[in-house]
UniProtKB/TrEMBL annotation:
Top EC class of this enzyme: hydrolase
One Pfam assignment: Astacin
Domain of life, per lineage: Eukaryota
Record keywords: Hydrolase, Metal-binding, Metalloprotease, Protease, Signal, Zinc
Source organism of this protein record: Linnemannia schmuckeri
Entry annotation: catalytic residues: 116
Protein name as catalogued: Metalloendopeptidase
Co-factor note (free text): Binds 1 zinc ion per subunit.
GO molecular function, one term: zinc ion binding
Gene3D superfamilies given in the database record: Collagenase (Catalytic Domain)
Amino acid sequence: MLARILLVCVLIGFAAAQGVLNENLRWRVNGVRRMAYSFDPNYPQQARQTVLRGIERWNQVLGDCLPLQPRRAGDRDYINVFNGGGCFSMIGRVGGGQALSLSVNGCVYRGTVIHEFLHAAGLIHTQKRPDRDNYITMHWGNIVDSWKSQFTKESSRDIGKYTDYDIYSIMHYTYRHPSWSINNRPGFTSKIPNVDYRRIGTGDDFTQSDVLAIRRMYKCPARKFNAIVNNNNSNNRNGTMDRKPILCSNV
Ligand SMILES: [Zn+2]
């Protein structure tokens, strides 16, 4: 059973703002609620700085709940960041060293760093939630076949619904992407009115629901969300798409 979980982020079906219900996949390192990470020795120094900025942000909002800490001697379970073929992570704590790929070609952005570590903590993509059809309409004909699995719903037996559906979650796919949209047409449209499509899948920070999902999954005390600031993005997003959408997929 566990072996099924080892595959890459999107291949998998076990998760929940939407995360894994299987408690064995939750992080504890030597009995303590925390996540440990290391860098592959070949991971470039410059990219590390961006990854570390994402980790710093993580610890600002989740450091009291599920801190991300450098691997210490004796830490059996840890996440090893490497320069793989794309952006991907396993879902939840797999046991031992688990790979998290942040390719220097397209994945070294703060938002992508946060996104992949949220997978490692146990979250799946928002558009795979069992209840997603209440919020988005799929346009399967606009998605290339090899990417369709990224949009299949997961079972509510495996996935906990820790928050309401958040189309702006950092775990939601963008509505179209050159890698998987046919003729740049949208893979889905929102059933929620007045959605800003430019914001979907292009975040570089947690949303409130992203943080809440982890806190609920890991049974951490509630904390006010004032500290979580997305405002610094809004100017950038005003009219122009100056950031790449997160592209996290199976390899
Ligand atoms: Zn992802």
